[in-house]
Design brief:
CATH superfamily: Aldolase class I
Distance between the termini: 26 Å
Helix content: 40-55%
CATH architecture: Alpha-Beta Barrel
Strand content: 15-25%
Structural class: alpha/beta
Largest sheet: 8 strands, parallel, barrel
CATH topology: TIM Barrel
Number of strands: 8
Length: 252
């Protein structure tokens, strides 16, 4: 068992819900300060986006953040070097698209992630059937490959994903790209289906925008992933101190 899964299992077994915020690396000059503010607020782990020009899962807010990051000259190597230079003290999960790792080379990517202290990756366009070489590259490097389950996933596929998942299972609350929403959608049903096949921690993401929605996610799952609501405010000028105050409302 790798360190990410161990950490999240220990929190769950102790009755602690896990708040996992997402921030795009390089989206603002002080992005690292915002990450540290999220940790200070009580984040159990942080999800760090590496910008890609053609994201398939991301809505308008995250796309804007990726564009701002790319225009600022952000590179994967630069993100990993910065993460290595200033460890955060909680697990770091990188979210990006497979073309990034394919371009760098899987072995090199795995090495860079390991050296940066990254303990999990989310690659939404890498299917379970095509993930073998990637999973081989990260084996032995303490990096979990997190898999997603959607409301539309057939039962047989939910079982396959749940049995192959590492770290935690990402339960998508709705059939949509990332963004803010008025409720937690189909999260409860997705979580229940995952739990029929796996005892891994299950986190709800996509559309979790308010503390009330996060608390509902905590009541049905082991944690909540909050991205667009946070990223939107940082893009509009929220300071790191304000980020900490914002995040504290999502922490139980």
């Amino acid at each position: 068992m790798n360190s990410l899964e161990r950490h999240l299992r220990e929190r769950r077994d102790a009755g602690q819900s896990s708040f996992v915020p997402y921030l795009m690396a390089g989206m603002v000059p002080d992005w690292r300060d915002h990450l540290e503010a999220l940790v200070a607020a009580g984040a159990a782990a942080v999800e760090v986006g590496v910008p890609f020009s053609d994201p398939i899962l991301d809505g308008v807010v995250i796309q804007r953040a990726a564009l701002a990051s790319l225009e600022a000259g952000t590179t994967p190597e630069g993100v990993f070097a910065e993460l290595a230079r200033r460890p955060l003290g909680v697990p770091v999960i990188v979210m990006t698209y497979f073309n990034i790792f394919h371009h760098l080379g899987m072995e090199r990517s795995a090495s860079l992630l390991h050296d940066a202290g990254v303990s999990g990756v989310i690659i939404p366009d890498l299917t379970l059937e095509e993930a073998g070489p990637w999973r081989e590259a990260v084996t032995g490097r303490d990096i979990d490959t997190v898999l997603l389950v959607a409301p539309s996933s057939p039962e047989a596929r939910v079982e396959k994903i749940a049995r192959a998942a590492q770290g935690f299972v990402y339960a998508a609350s709705r059939m949509a790209v990332t963004g803010q929403a008025e409720d937690t959608g189909d999260a409860g049903a997705v979580v229940d289906r995952v739990r029929r096949h796996s005892d891994l921690p299950v986190f709800v993401g996509i559309g979790i925008s308010t503390p009330e929605q996060a608390r509902h996610a905590y009541s049905i799952a082991d944690g909540a992933i909050v991205g667009s609501a946070l990223v939107d405010r940082v893009l509009r000028g929220m300071s790191a101190l304000e980020t900490e105050a914002f995040a504290r409302d999502f922490v139980l």
